[in-house]
Amino acid sequence: MTFRLRRIFWLGLWLVNACAPAGLHAALTPEKLYQKVLPSVMTLEVISQSGEKFIGSAVLALADDVVLTAWHVVADARSICAVFADGQRVNVIGCIDHDGGRDLALLKLEKQLPHRRAALGCELPAVAARAYVVGSPKGYDFSITDGLISQIRSVKGFLQYQLSCPISPGNSGSPVFNQRGELIGIASWTKAGAQNLSFAIPTQDFIRLNVFKRPTIWAQPAATTRPAAVASLMESRQSNDKALEEKMDEGSFAAFRKRLSDSVGKSVTVVFQDEERTNTFTFTVK
């Protein structure tokens, strides 16, 4: 199917799936919105080619077995299982289509799940419109955060939503909803060193993908593994950025050991921090 015909099909599908014009729907309370959208949201349990286990988020939309998520969540996948809030677990059999540049992916579930699909928003939201993100920040699955569409700006040559919603690793691929509970975007990346400065890809961009393609089954582990940056959750789509790669290298345990070995005879201070507490240690390296 040509791109033009595919675009016409998707636009038709968009109209069929979407609700009536926005003016006919009142805004939902956060409680009602969460109840409405929760059945469509899933946590993706991903096993990478190297055997690393991590999580991302996704949403069921467009069809009863088609999943929307961020490409960097699944780019290095060996297997994926989708877990819903009610405990249902469904295998993801493969990727239907993807756009690495826009960080988009369509995935195929092993079976159809009726009455779970998210409603689609038909138009771009206004700047300062309310937005909600549901996902699994730091593994705390099915968490909801709210904020605003801070701006709609061109980044890397295409439109993206700038969000003030708090987003953390594990939220990659999370659905972004408007105040009527309609799907308007997919969380993609966040700006390092900034507070609540995250970006989402409008769901309209999924029109660029081909829903008719036969899904590509997840590849078996290769002889050599792909770079670890591919499997990171929120900043991996910037893995080609040299500064980010250097920052990731500097934060590795190997780099820490090297710094210690270069500091023999010196007094150093190490800060150990986890989710519950912070400890500071000062000692002389011998």
Task: Describe the structure in your own words.
- This protein has 286 residues and is α+β, with helices and mostly antiparallel strands.
- It folds into two domains: 3-109 and 128-217, Thrombin, subunit H, CATH 2.40.10; 228-284, no CATH class.
- The chain is built from five helices and 16 strands.
- The strands form three sheets. A six-stranded antiparallel barrel has the order 1-2-3-6-5-4.
- Mean pLDDT is 81; it is low at 224-252.
| Tally of helical segments | 5
Q: Tell me, what's the shape? A: globular
Widest sheet: strand ordering = 1-2-3-6-5-4
Give the ordered list of helices and strands. HHEEEHEEEEEEEEEEEHHEE
Main beta sheet strand tally, sense and closure: 6 strands, antiparallel, barrel
Helix/strand class: alpha+beta
Number of DSSP E strands? 16
Please tell me the total number of domains: 2
> What is the straight-line distance between the termini?
67 Å
Poorly predicted segments: 224-252
Q: Can you tell me the CATH class of the largest domain?
A: Mainly Beta
Q: How helical, in percent, are the residues?
A: 10-25%
Beta-strand percentage range: 35-45%
CATH topology of the largest domain: Thrombin, subunit H
Gross CATH architecture of the largest domain: Beta Barrel
Average pLDDT works out at 81
- Rg, Cα atoms, Å: 20 Å
